[in-house]
Amino acid sequence: MLDPATRRILKVFGFFLWTIAIFGLGEIIGLGLAQKRIECRYESHDGRWLALVRSHFTLTPPRQSFWIRDLRTAEETRLADLERADGACNGIVWSPESDRVGFLVEGAVLMLYDPADASSLRRLELLAPGERGEGLAARGLVFLPARRSVRYDVCRADRAGVLETRELAY
Description:
By secondary structure, this protein is α+β, with helices and mostly antiparallel strands. The protein has two domains: 1-34; 35-169, YVTN repeat-like/Quinoprotein amine dehydrogenase (Methylamine Dehydrogenase, Chain H, 7 Propeller), CATH 2.130.10. It is 17% helix and 47% strand. Strands 1-2-3-4 form a four-stranded antiparallel β-sheet, with no helix packed on it. Strands 5-6-7-8 form a four-stranded antiparallel β-sheet, with no helix packed on it. A hairpin with a 4-residue loop joins strand 7 (109-114) and strand 8 (119-125). The longest helix has 20 residues, at 4-23. The chain is globular. The chain starts with a helix and ends with a strand.
């Protein structure tokens, strides 16, 4: 049997750990209680798949990873790790048939995957390196399956307004 002072200390410490775990603060203060946080997720059009982007703050350097979850079986598959030097994922887009998923990285690169076998299909450079330096970003991505291409708008990253619309075959 523990004495009352020890019980109070354990109760306060337990509350502290639960608070950290619930609010996801474990990663911030380095306890590693919450290993990853879901940054964004998007369900496929047919309702079978869920694409996820997770941030791993406890890794050095921090990075993101791309995942696919089969909603029928709840099985998750890691597609790729995005190194910090590559930037961050800021969007997910599905093809209308749900046979391709694209992860938009830094508004400039679209990484395509097949969810059925978790294979990498292509890496599409939507913007030239010089355009990225000018503060441009690709937005509003749409798959055009009949033409096997992706249509997107080129915008200024820091304000609204479309500069031009482009199409790129995949």
